[in-house]
Amino acid sequence: xxxxxxxxxxxxxxxxxxxxxxxxxxxxxxxxxxxxxxxxxxxxxxxxxxxxxxxxxxxxxxxxxxxxxxxxxxxxxxxxxxxxxxxxxxxxxxxxxxxxxxxxxxxxxxxxxxxxxxxxxxxxxxxxxxxxxxxxxxxxxxxxxxxxxxxxxxxxxxxxxxxxxxxxxxxxxxxxxxxxxxxxxx
Length: 186
Known about the structure:
The protein is an all-alpha fold. The protein has eight helices and no strands. The protein has helices at residues 5-13, 17-38, 42-58, 69-87, 117-136, 139-149, 155-162, 166-185. The radius of gyration is 18 Å and the shape is globular.
């Protein structure tokens, strides 16, 4: 029977260091991508990433599985990002314009880019446009989008992790998705 994240964290709190190793192995990639895509400077991202896991280690004795482990760890990441943004004088709040309309059908992923050189170039250019558009999103929208897509958190879990209400999270994800689609279509 596979161990849940919550069981692993509780086992770690009881002194099982191997449990933390398994937990870290499960989530290090998605947590790092979330943090790295939320910040322009790689050094800041690496520092925040380390701080997130240090906070998790420090909190092991106080950990209570009141929510999913992923919600808890992304709440730590969110708080560390907010601290850094405030330190750098950035605003965390902006929910700028955008349309309340339906986002339309999902974007179909490209075929195998190795099949055709033109497809490789088009895919590379689309990825560059996407990365630039993602970096240009307001921090709150980028964070909500990444938590939904990278961390696969639900709207409710994102709201819990960030301290925002669910409607704000839905709006942030919708605006971010619309802007990213527009960048890919452009």
